[in-house]
Design brief:
By secondary structure, the protein is of the alpha+beta class. It has a domain of about 30 residues. It contains one helix and four strands, in the order H-E-E-E-E. Strands 1-4 form a two-stranded antiparallel ribbon. Strands 2-3 form a two-stranded antiparallel ribbon. The longest helix has 13 residues. It is elongated, with a radius of gyration of 35 Å.
């Protein structure tokens, strides 16, 4: 009886098992991506600070029209926080 029960369980479990078939087709030649060239930042002198509280923002590269362009650094004006006259919340 145990053999029949084991056979039924094995047969019942195999009803839902389907064949696993996998076919892979590769076309073309594998090509490694081109190395990304990052140009060094241009060397330039930092201009003197225009006044107290200014912060220097360094230059950076950015993309425009498919080209990499350098945006030079600049002095950022101080941020004034607090109550502004005539401003209502």
């Amino acid at each position: 009886m145990k053999k029949i029960l084991a056979g039924l369980i094995l047969a019942g479990g195999s009803l839902f098992a389907g064949p696993h078939i996998s076919i892979g087709i590769g076309l073309g030649v594998p090509v490694a991506p081109a190395p990304v060239y990052v140009a060094p930042a241009p060397v330039y002198a930092v201009p003197p600070m225009p006044g107290p509280g200014y912060t220097w923002v360094g230059g950076y590269w950015y993309f425009s029209g498919g080209h990499r362009l350098w945006h030079e650094g600049y002095w950022r004006a101080p941020v004034v926080r607090g109550y502004a006259r005539g401003f209502r919340r």
